[in-house]
Amino acid sequence: MAKNTIEAAVLITLGSGAEQQAGTLYASGNECVFRYAAEYIASPQSFDLFPSLPRSLAPFHFAGLGPFSDCAPDRWGRKVFARSLNRTRVSETEYLFGVNDLTRQGAIRFFIEGKPAAGDEGVPALASLPDLLNTADAVEQNREIANIELRRLYRATGSLGGARPKASVVDQGALWLAKFPKPNGDDWDVIGWEAVTLEIARMTGITVPEHRVLTIHDRTDMPRTVLLTKRFDRAPQPATVEAMRRIPYMSALTALAAQDGEGGDWLDLAEFARQYGCDTVELWRRAVFGVVIGNLDDHLRNHGFLRVAGQWQLAPAFDMNPEPYDAHVPDRHQMSLFGQDVIGLDQLLSDDGLALFGVRHNYAAQWMRTLESALMQAVARAGLRHIDAQSIAVMRGRFERAVSEIHKVIQQ
């Protein structure tokens, strides 16, 4: 490693809730080396931090951040951080250690010279959402922003993934993810429809985060929809952010040791889930749900796993967004099925599709009726959410098509 190598202690939360140093990360620019601590390996509560890092005393070398990429910011966070530094080139190490310790995703923490990397300067309260929204708008529109506001937004953003503007906030002793609408570029109420989609998914038996929707007025006094979802990588007690127990998390991208840009295949994800004892039937429900609503942004970073009671399980479903239906353009998913990115219900209901997820035919037939009932309520729920008429009209065809296709399957 180079002379400017940063040595960081890597801490992880064990099943007991206690933190222990799992090892040491040596990072320089875009290169990293990780070594497990012998004491951690010897602990009966220890576990492999990631499948690609099996416990061993041998060092692990990787270009970039490797499996630690979940701990670093994604597209939106990188944009805000680079803007706060007033630079266009930022190293992977800078991104990793620039994340506010309190908002970092999952349970891995980095300590440099005995202190949390990037400090723990606090998380904005719910009342700060209008200011955060206005700063996010300024970043998206490339307007002038005070550096202190940029740093504040970045501390709140942390390592949260995705390209859409977002930030973490504290409300009633819990940590929440606030997802903002874009100041321009959205042709419909994307945030409002995401909230409706979460409600419909929960009706079908899909586990989703606790969530709610707020209307916030921006600097021009325009009402904007903000989606709040409770961070599922934090235990609810105690009621201070600093003392919250962190829950280990890894994206499906990390679980499968894939690279950004690789959409993934349900075959690999289902096999991993089965290997680790996760609920593959729920995974099938999510796959079917995503196909019928046209959730095309279903890549591996938008699926994840939590470590609970000593084993990995599916994290709640998130980032599920319907796309308008176009009869002339086939839905092309980032997650393929058996190598095909145009996925139909018939494939997921075929013998091979059901066998992949371990779903019985009689269960699939019964659940399709539940799915039909839930999707029939989508447009009405959008109205109850006060989604504007144009946004409802844009998405109406998608849900009518979904109900029609499911009804055909049920009648067969």
UniProtKB/TrEMBL annotation:
Residues 19-95 form the HipA N-terminal subdomain domain. Belongs to the HipA Ser/Thr kinase family. Keywords: Kinase, Transferase. It comes from Bifidobacterium colobi. Residues 159-340 form the HipA-like C-terminal domain. It comes from the Bacteria. This is HipA domain-containing protein.
